[in-house]
Amino acid sequence: MRYLTAGESHGKYLAGILEGFPAGVKVTKDHIAAQLRRRRLAPGRSARQAAENDEFEIVSGMRGGLTTGAPVCVLLKNSVRTIPRSSSVPRPGHADLAGMLKYGTMDAVLIRERASARETAARVALGSFALRLHELLGISITSKVTALDGQDAVNSGTTEARILRARRAGDTLGGIFEVTVGNLPAGLGDFNHWDLRLGSRLAAAMLGINGVKGFEVGGGFGLAAMGGIEALKHPELSGGLDGGMTNGRALTLRCAVKPVPGLPGGAPSADLRGFRKKLSVSKTSDTTAVFAAAVVGEHAAALELAGALLDKFGGDSIGEILPRVEQWRKTTKRTLSGL
Ligand code: EPS
Questions:
Q1: What CATH number is given for 2-337 in this structure?
Q2: Which residues, at least 6 apart from 161, have a Cβ–Cβ distance to it below 8 Å?
């Protein structure tokens, strides 16, 4: 299974193609729309999201509400379709400067249009298919934001107020989100090669989300400060992976999201034509992207794990896959309960 996206932030459409997804999976438009809404209306978002409605069309790979096994193509219409005027002022901390150098252009807009996190809407549309497959296999994927601006974001009840305060101050906030996956069959992924280890595949998917700068599995960086005797008393700290394979426990992934670098009040930059100092002002940036990124994280993980399931169990339709997974669960449960 593999997927690709295309499209710019203010182009006509974003497109997503999902290839190798099994036949016979019921996916409703309502389900996809609900997932897109979760991403779009997450806390901390900019006015851009109020102007979008994420209208979409499934143009291939489905018939009668079921996937056919053929490549699924989803087209998402951008409501905001005015491509900003060319600009030779890169926004610090964004893809602008490195992208301008890389592609040999003086126009930062060419870079911004594709580097924008708007693209993650296409990933969520495709991830919605993977989420449905997991649901049919009894696998749950959830996320929560555990920290905002270095403080607890779960129990404090002050999240909205902190976002508002930052917005009023013209500032942006970073945070941490956690994705938890329950009831995954043991033995997904492989220890034999570094690129087959499930951790490396998940790391690529999660670090591939715009603004993600850190990634941990289970106890993550905290494990480095523990002794082996203590660590073994807490098997949940393995985060559900041993030797690059699922071990039958809940999978826990954690990502650090940087504060959005585009500041509404402007950030010091320079016009690359003439090298005069100039402010780069971002009117459409989010105050924090961590809540939206958490939703994207669920979908990015869902896509990777769907691929890993298909690698292990094969099968072209849900009718083939489901009994194989059930049989495997019975077998592994017997072994694991004997330990
Ligand atoms: C986003 C769309 C973007 C930003 C934000 C997220 O809109 P635009 O491309 O018009 O700026 O609101 O993107 C960023 C934070 C970013 O760094 O690009 C979206 O739909 O998620």
A1: 3.60.150.10
A2: none
